[in-house]
Design goal:
The chain contains four helices and four strands. The termini are far apart.
Length: 185
């Protein structure tokens, strides 16, 4: 190889090296992104704000299975429900649109993993049909919104049998009016 070839290789070989730019590490504590979170007592539209936060924290993915599918004591509350047989939910509007459910604490600022569930509309309507009667008026934003009677937490472990799910589906089929127009707040 000639000296010219060596010079050309040295000059142009750097084109194949990954480009390294100087970067600066930004400390999160010193400079966060966006507006700081407001205290619940300072929020004027608590329901909208809580739901938007839940949507960011708990996205619904395409072809996701209802989180309550097959559970024996889904959602907690005074009357936990038996979850669906495995409904698939979607992030978009339509008949399979997934819902984010806050409960048994219906305060939408309580976005704890044990209080927010990504579920099908069937389970959502059934839970509210069974449990709404146990709630009073919505309290101020910084207070829990729990049933007025003793209630259970959501049980994500105990599964219903296939027979229990089938029997539950038959029971709800004969009581469709209970879930029509139910308040989901």
């Amino acid at each position: 190889m000639s000296d010219v070839d060596d010079l050309w290789i040295d000059k142009n070989f750097s084109l194949y090296e990954p480009y390294q730019d100087d970067y600066t590490v930004i400390e999160v504590e010193k400079r966060g992104v966006g507006r700081p979170m407001s205290e619940p007592s300072e929020i004027t539209d608590i329901v909208s704000t809580g739901r938007k936060r839940a949507a960011m924290m708990y996205p619904i993915f395409k072809d996701m299975k209802c989180e309550w599918a097959g559970l024996k004591f889904a959602g907690g509350g005074v009357e936990p429900i038996i979850g669906c047989a495995g409904n698939i939910i979607q992030p978009t509007k339509g008949p399979d649109k997934g819902d984010r459910h806050h409960g048994p604490d219906k305060n939408v600022i309580n976005n704890a993993p044990t209080n927010v569930h990504r579920i099908c509309s069937t389970c959502h309507n059934r839970w509210h049909a069974a449990n709404n009667k146990y709630y009073g008026e919505r309290p101020p934003a910084d207070e829990p919104y729990v049933p007025l009677e003793e209630y259970k937490e959501h049980d994500p472990e105990t599964k219903a049998t296939e027979e229990e799910i089938e029997e539950n589906e038959k029971w709800w089929t004969t009581r469709r009016k209970l879930t029509t127009g139910v308040d989901l707040d």
